[in-house]
Amino acid sequence: MSDTTTQSSSSPEPRPHFHAANHGNLPPVSNQLLGCEDLDVYYGAFRAVTEVDLEFNRNEITALIGPSGCGKSTLLRSLNRMNDLIDGARVEGTVNFMGQNIYAKGVDPIEVRRRIGMVFQKPNPFPKSIYDNIAYGPRVTGMSVSSMDDLVEESLTKAALWSEVKDKLKAPAFGLSGGQQQRMCIARTIAVKPEVILMDEPCSALDPIATMRIEDLMHELREDFTIVIVTHNMQQAARVADRTAFFTAHAEETTGNRTGVLVEFDRTAEIFENPKDKRTEDYISGRFG
Ligand SMILES: Nc1ncnc2c1ncn2[C@@H]1O[C@H](COP(=O)(O)OP(=O)(O)OP(=O)(O)O)[C@@H](O)[C@H]1O
Ligand SMILES: [Mg+2]
């Protein structure tokens, strides 16, 4: 893909840094790195997601929330062409990354997935050592790496795991706790130097302490990356996200099929304190979903 924009982590400009407490003072959307327009996602004839427009800003965390089955995972996977790997899945509309449609002819999906990485609900270490898990991506993508040891250390440090594993890098990754495995998977994603990290309920298999560590980590990662997170935990969205998109499933008039639609997208504080749509209000107040 052509790199037309300066990558945020290498930008010499000091970037504003927003903490959770500043949710209400964010600038308007203006710093878009990734976005989708008129996005429909189908599984065969079934349209799982309908006409979604969203913009994701550099160095922000955006949360996708909504009831089960409203298409959050489907949408998330369409943002880095992960749906290509699912039989029958088809995307219509555009997903723009740095001004380029990732579904355009000639775009390499492997390169898309390197630059827009993904962390899954359940930690999925490879049956390899911790070191080899982190080095795997750089090796298979043929990244030019001056020192793999340094890259492994840097990635594990950024994922807040280095101090816990530095003396057992050659031990199997399966020996780590669930929370450590998830941070290792984040380190593995970071190692190939993506711009965006997509996270699909990354804390749902973790206890509250491991969850807090991941949330703290997300705040640190926001300095270098743009993050999109799916979460069922509304407190989590309120704690970590700069912006929140609320989805629901509604019945299509013609077929009666339930399809996912974007109801409201705004700064997180607005969504939780001053929702504009009754459906958002009902959901966040626990009356639905
Ligand atoms: N591989 C697939 N093949 C066919 N239909 C699918 C597939 N994956 C998801 N769907 C359907 O698409 C719709 C959206 O599913 P999706 O998993 O994206 O929802 P979700 O919002 O992530 O739900 P949850 O909160 O339960 O994870 C659902 O109706 C689901 O049954
Ligand atoms: Mg899901």
Automatic annotation (TrEMBL):
GO process terms (BP):
phosphate ion transmembrane transport
Among PROSITE patterns, the record links this protein to: ABC_TRANSPORTER_1 (PS00211), ABC_TRANSPORTER_2 (PS50893)
Where is the stretch described as Disordered?
1-24
Q: Give the record's keywords alphabetically.
A: ATP-binding, Nucleotide-binding, Translocase, Transport
| Entry keyword Transcription | no
Cite the InterPro entries for this sequence: AAA+_ATPase (IPR003593), ABC_transporter-like_ATP-bd (IPR003439), ABC_transporter-like_CS (IPR017871), P-loop_NTPase (IPR027417), PstB-like (IPR005670)
Transport found in the keyword field: yes
The record, for CDD domains, names:
ABC_PstB_phosphate_transporter
Q: Where is the ABC transporter domain?
A: 34-274
Ranges of compositional bias, category Polar residues: 1-12
Domain of life assignment: Bacteria
Mind naming one GO cellular-component term on file for this protein?
A: membrane
Question: Which one of the record's GO molecular function terms can you name?
Answer: ATP binding
NCBIfam families in the cross-refs = 3a0107s01c2
Read off the PANTHER family from this record: ABC TRANSPORTER I FAMILY MEMBER 17
| Name assigned to this protein | Phosphate transport system ATP-binding protein
**Which species does the entry assign this protein to?**
Brevibacterium sandarakinum
